[in-house]
Specification:
Number of strands: 14
Distance between the termini: 104 Å
CATH architecture of the largest domain: Up-down Bundle
Radius of gyration: 46 Å
Strand content: 15-25%
Structural class: alpha+beta
Largest sheet: 5 strands, antiparallel
Number of helices: 18
Oligomer: single chain
Number of domains: 4
CATH class of the largest domain: Mainly Alpha
Shape: elongated
CATH superfamily of the largest domain: Rhodopsin 7-helix transmembrane proteins
Strand order of the largest sheet: 4-3-7-6-5
Helix content: 40-55%
């Protein structure tokens, strides 16, 4: 080659740069499609070498021979480039059947057609000339039909590469889309250069500019490689955090207007009561944004609630550099819903514990006071007390101890309900005798109140799958409540019937009734409608809670209807045995 020619010098410089960059790429073993990229550089050097030899040729035969054999590099370069893009952009291996066809058969056939053109003149026509000028020698080709077939094939390969790059742009994560746009643009450069050469006659030193444009494309890609391995890793990391974060992030200008949102923030805005409202008017976030725009800082309280979610607001100033003008804010909403719920549960648990201690101490104090008082009078009175007085005091002490026993049993049952220790032994149980037994036991409760009972049972025997002892506990709790809250001389009505495959046990009293909206309190643990020290009915506040839990384990339920001052009717439902 005549290295004194400017065109040849350009070829040498271009080939050297591409080769050096290829050597650099060779050291990065983790790059997808690296071997195809290196083969593309090798084909690029072959093409550039042929261009240099052709430009400095001293005879027409030499120039014609080199220009024809150069088709090996012509065909392989775009082929290897397309293979590289396929593996890098799509993250998949090139199909094995394509490699021998595109990298073996096609280059061989096209090169053979070019080399033998002197015989058939279908690739290069008879008007092909070797021209000598002051700027150097070059081949002016007369393109035949086979040439255009070869060019059509190469364009098909290049378009395929462009389609692969375009698909990568369309499907890429927003954080890396800018890189794939650069890759797509680099893929189009050789196509534009070759079209300019074929259609517009544009040349570079009287030769086809396509190899130089490919060199430019390869150089651009290698530059991207050198710049943090294909992409700006820092920028993509930031964008990945922005686009993939489950926490809403807003980019706002200094006046508080949202100019960018990540998907989580956009979804939050769509779900708002007024999706079209500006950010400064969006729920509890609005006042925070207005304060940020007006004062350049967040308000003292930054915990907000939007819908059912709780957020802690964080804001970071955006500027072009240290000491530069501030251009906006990045406002992040950290989802603290789980923490908020956990805190609320912790507070509720603490309150429940305090309520438990208060209830248990209160309920223990009353029967203990009665027991201590009765036993104190018995020990101090001695012979001064009549037998009737002694019997009455012993009865009070006995009642107090029974109350304490019930309280302790309720506490044990409540604890075991939440563990495997609470067992249910299901057997066929006739409800009639079970209800009658519960009513008989209830008649002995608080005999001084003179409560009257009625019990209406179904004529047909009703059988359920149940634990007789636990079901007796259920009826006892409900009847005990009826007696407890009935006025002296009151009436408690009990009935047993069936309806739609269910056994219904109803217990009605003529007591003070239950206020509307108190159902949750009625069946809650350690809950009593009257928690004052002046109340007349005492208990652990656990009986109805235990009752509902036992019925749940039997597939049954309990509900009530009540009117203050009139009375309450509890209805227990249990599935009948078929």
């Amino acid at each position: 080659m005549d290295v004194g020619m400017p065109a040849v010098q350009l070829v040498i410089v271009t080939a050297s740069v591409v080769t050096v960059l290829g050597y650099w790429v060779r050291g990065h073993s983790s790059l997808p499609g690296k071997h195809w990229f290196l083969l593309a550089i090798l084909a690029m050097d072959m093409w550039l070498l042929s261009v240099g030899v052709e430009l400095s040729a001293t005879t027409a035969a030499c120039a014609f021979g080199v220009s024809r054999w150069a088709w090996i590099g012509f065909v392989l370069l775009p082929t290897f480039w397309a293979f590289f893009l396929y593996e890098y952009a799509l993250g998949a291996k090139v199909p094995r059947y394509l490699v021998p066809i595109c990298a073996g058969v096609a280059p061989a056939l096209i090169t053979l057609a070019a080399v033998t053109s002197g015989w058939h003149e279908k690739f290069y026509g008879p008007e092909t000339k070797w021209i000598l000028s002051e700027e150097g020698a070059y081949v002016q080709s007369d393109h035949g039909p086979l040439f255009f077939i070869a060019i059509a094939y190469l364009y098909m390969v290049i378009v395929a590469a462009a389609v692969v790059a375009g698909r990568a742009v369309r499907t890429a994560n927003p954080a890396v889309r800018s890189f794939f746009l650069k890759l797509f643009a680099a893929t189009l450069i050789p196509m534009v250069a070759n079209l300019g050469y074929i259609l517009g006659g544009i040349t570079l030193f009287h030769t086809d500019p396509t190899p130089f444009s490919f060199a430019l494309s390869l150089t651009l890609v290698v530059w991207l490689v050198a710049d943090n391995r294909w992409i700006d890793v820092n920028a993509i990391a930031r964008e990945l955090l922005f686009y993939n974060s489950t926490d809403p992030v807003f980019v706002v200008d200094p006046s508080g207007v949202a100019i960018e949102t990540n998907p989580a923030a956009a979804d939050l805005l769509r779900r708002g009561a007024e999706p079209e409202a500006p950010l400064s008017e969006f729920g509890e976030l609005g006042p925070v944004i207005r304060h940020l725009a007006a004062h350049g800082s967040l308000p003292d309280v930054t915990d907000i609630q939007l819908g059912h979610r709780h957020f802690a607001v964080r804001a970071h100033a955006i500027s072009l550099g240290v000491g530069q003008k501030q251009v906006g804010w990045a406002v992040a909403l950290l989802d603290v819903t789980v923490q908020k719920i956990a805190a609320q549960k912790a507070i509720a648990a603490e309150q429940m514990q305090m309520q438990f201690l208060a209830t248990v101490s209160h309920e223990l104090r009353t029967p203990l006071t009665v027991i201590n008082g009765a036993l104190g009078l018995l020990s101090q009175g001695g012979a001064k007390l009549s037998d009737a007085q002694k019997a009455r005091l012993l009865g009070k002490a006995t009642d107090g101890s029974e109350t304490l026993t019930t309280l302790v049993n309720d506490l044990i049952d409540t604890q075991s309900l939440s563990s495997a220790a609470f067992s249910i032994d299901l057997q066929s149980v006739a409800l009639g005798p079970l209800v009658q037994g519960a009513v008989a036991r209830a008649e002995s409760l608080q005999p001084d109140k003179d409560i009257r009972f009625t019990c209406a049972l179904s004529d047909a025997p009703l059988t359920v799958q149940a634990d007789a002892e636990r079901l007796g506990q259920v009826f006892g709790n409900v009847l005990s409540n009826a007696v407890k809250f009935s006025l002296p001389g009151g009436l408690v009505e009990v009935s047993l019937e069936q309806a739609e495959g269910m056994a219904l046990v109803q217990v009605s009293d003529s007591g003070c009734g239950i206020p509307p909206g108190a159902e949750e309190q009625v069946f809650a643990r350690f809950s009593q409608l009257d928690g004052s020290d002046t109340k007349t009915a005492y208990g652990s506040g656990l009986g109805m809670h235990i009752t509902r839990q036992i019925l749940d384990r039997h597939g049954g339920s309990i509900r009530y209807v009540s009117a203050p001052g009139v009375g309450t009717t509890f209805t227990i439902s249990l599935p009948l045995v078929a």
